[in-house]
Structure formats: C-alpha cells, structure tokens
C-alpha cells in the first residue's frame, strides 16, 4: 500500500510532524560543522545539513541559511570576516555536532560547550574542527536571497583542503567511508554508509 | 599524515581529477531522478545529486542546474510546463539512474533507454518513476541565477507526496532505509546506509 499526501493535507500536519516529514523528502544529506570567528575573536561552530557542491572550476560550495535559526552567528561572522571552514562530521563527533544546534548565546562558543577543538592552520582566520578528518577553508563569494521563504544561499570558494593520507583515490575521488564521514537524514538521523558500487562515466548505449 | 592542498594546486589538477576531488568535498549527497514531460509529450528522466531541503512551510525543495549538462531538457521542460517529479533512487535502480546522465538526444526518453517506467498519478502532468519508492510532485516557484558560475537554483513547492506504508515513523520522519533510498558521493559513488542513531532536538546543556 502507498500513502498519498496532497499539499492541503501537508499544510494541516502538526508543525513538528510536518517539519520532520518535509525534511525527509530530499533524501540523504551531507553533515558538516561550519567554523567561524567574529572580528572580536569569538569562535562559533554550527552543524549544517545543507552544504552542497556548486562547481569545480572555480571550486565552489553552497549552503542554506534560514532566517530563524541559532546558526545566525555563522552568517554574521562570515559577513564580517569573509572566511569560514567546512568540516566533515564523522562517527566519533556526531553527537557533539548535533548538540551545536542548541540555542546558546552568541558569547558562548560551541567549541567549548561541545568539546570540539578549534585548530588554526596555515594562518587561516577561521578555526577548523580538529576532530574532523576533512577540513575545508572557504572565502565568501556571494550571498543570494531566496525570496519565497526568506532563506539565503551562501556561496564560498574553496581555498584550502586538508584530507588524511590514504583516503584519496587514484582518480581524485575522496573515499568518504575511509575518512569516516557520515550522512544525515531528516533533522535527526545519523548514518554510516556502505559502498554499493562506483560506476564509470555514463555513455549513451549503442543500439 | 595529512595532505594539504591550496587553491593554486587545486586549479592545476588534471581536469577530471579536480572534478572528482571537488565533488567529494561536500560529503554525502541525495540521489533523485527528476521526471519531466515537454508540452509535446516527450518525457525525460535525469539523475540529480543536488536536490536539497529548502523549507517546510511552505514545503520547498531546491536543486542546482549546471549550464553545460545533459540535464538541460529537465530545465526546459520545467520552464515550459511548471511541473516536475522528484523520485528517490534506491538500490534496485541505481545503475539505471546513473545511466540517465549519458548524453542522449532530446527526442529520446531516458525512461525508455534505461528501462524506467513512467507512471502517471492523480492527473499530475509529469511522470513519476514507478520503480522509485518515494515520489514527489512539485510546482516550479522560482529559478534563481548564481552568477559566479552561471548555475541556477531551481525552487519548487511540494504539492503531492507518495510513500510506501510502513516507512513513516510516528514523528513524521520517513525511514529512508526502510524505503531503500540510497546516498551518493562525488560523481560516481552509490551507498547503502546504516542508522547510527536518531538524536532528540538539541537543548542547551545546563551547567
């Protein structure tokens, strides 16, 4: 049997039920901690499940900022300083990463509250998460408004990448399972993965 | 040991190596087949790894269109008709789904070449993928330009959802493992998942 929901029914769902349901629909999600530092030196760490690939040349990543979340400090710090880090969530720190979504005051660093270690590399302004195995340094390029629901797409250029030796495959792919990167679902699911297969570049079948 | 790459080194990577590397950096990805139908009735199916949650009220999803891909038919059909479907990739159809990324002419339907079955439900214009277990009907709301690399963010409102009975949890979350939805990595990785844990809504710790 198949369940069928139309938009009127979705709109009438209890609010938290609806949020969990709609958040499930896109499929699996990336899980990253974004690290920032305000001009006054205050650090911030926040989990995001909306970081996505935007292009390889130039090397760009995007993520979505909601207007109403605790992650506002992230956006304020990026706007103020232009720099931020993206750090993969792995199976050792997923609970700490999840807890960064709690509503702490701006003068409290989630690095402190969640026992994550800010680490500075190569004089980059923003802190990386030491416990994360894949660290990326980005420079803000654009903040694009999405008028329909007052969200913002934050676009950054990848300027430095740190990966553990041994996870980089011959063709340039990073083996995310070897780096212990995990995936997310809806608002609260944390998942290990198992490779089914890597497939070659698809060419049209000949008849 | 840690490998460190700066942007100058990334820019000098061999092109396909660079594409695989940069595509790995965001983490795990959703995998969906977008189904469309042109005004003349020609159907199209294309795999996307950039579909993401954009908001629950209104219920919105976004995906990224590159200017230079075979998926252009998808955008043309959406612009022409306003309607499209998002269908989760599962472990039975991942190879078919992958193959939809091959460069077929516009007058050939990937539903035919890849043995995917277009199915029409509730008089919705665009075809769903019958073999997919989670089907979503969307109505175009906005196409937002991302000037830095000439990509586009396509924003759609979720107007109908089909899910198998038994995958919907008490709190509204869809159990993506029960629905056999799989995740992606870089350009070519297909992954099953195993739930580590679902965590409750995060509240600040008291001292």
Question: Could you explain the architecture of this structure?
Answer:
2 copies of one chain form a homodimer. By secondary structure, chain A is of the alpha+beta class. Chain A has 5 helices and 13 strands. A 7-stranded antiparallel beta sheet of chain A has the order 4-3-7-10-11-6-5. In chain A, strands 2-12-13 form a 3-stranded antiparallel beta sheet, with no helix packed on it. In chain A, strand 3 and strand 4 form a beta hairpin. The longest helix of chain A has 10 residues. The termini of chain A are far apart. The model of chain A has no long low-confidence stretch (mean pLDDT 95). The interface between A and B is large, with 115 and 115 residues. Strand 13 of chain A pairs antiparallel with strand 13 of chain B, so a sheet runs across the interface.
Fill in the keyword field for this structure.
homodimer, alpha+beta, 13 strands, seven-stranded antiparallel beta sheet, 207 residues, 5 helices, three-stranded antiparallel beta sheet
Largest interface comes to: A-B, 115 and 115 residues
In round numbers, the mean pLDDT of chain A is 95
Largest sheet of chain A: 7 strands, antiparallel
Shape of chain A: globular
- Beta content of chain A: 35-45%
From the alpha carbons, calculate the radius of gyration of chain A and give it in angstroms.
18 Å
Describe the oligomeric state of these chains in a short phrase. Answer: homodimer
Tell me the helix content of chain A. Answer: 10-25%
Query: So how many helices of chain A?
Result: 5
Concise overview:
By secondary structure, chain A is an alpha+beta fold. Helices cover 17% and strands 39% of the residues of chain A.
């Amino acid at each position: 049997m198949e369940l069928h929901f139309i938009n009127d029914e979705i709109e009438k769902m209890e609010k938290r039920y609806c949020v969990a349901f709609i958040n499930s629909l896109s499929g699996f999600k990336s899980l990253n901690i974004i690290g920032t530092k305000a001009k006054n030196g205050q650090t911030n760490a926040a989990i995001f499940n909306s970081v996505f690939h935007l292009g390889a040349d130039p090397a760009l990543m995007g993520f979505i900022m909601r207007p109403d979340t605790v992650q506002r400090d992230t956006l304020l710090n990026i706007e103020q300083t232009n720099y931020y880090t993206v750090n993969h969530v792995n199976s050792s720190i997923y609970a700490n990463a999840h807890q960064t979504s709690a509503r702490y005051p701006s003068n409290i660093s989630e690095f402190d509250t969640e026992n994550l270690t800010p680490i500075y590399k190569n004089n980059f302004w923003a802190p990386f998460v030491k416990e994360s195995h894949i660290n990326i340094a980005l420079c803000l390029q654009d903040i694009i408004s999405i008028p329909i629901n007052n969200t913002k797409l934050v676009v950054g250029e990848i300027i430095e990448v740190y990966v553990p030796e041994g996870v980089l495959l011959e063709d340039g792919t990073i083996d995310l399972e070897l780096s212990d990167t995990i995936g997310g679902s809806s608002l609260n699911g944390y998942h290990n993965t198992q490779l089914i297969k890597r497939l070659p570049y698809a060419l049209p079948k000949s008849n």
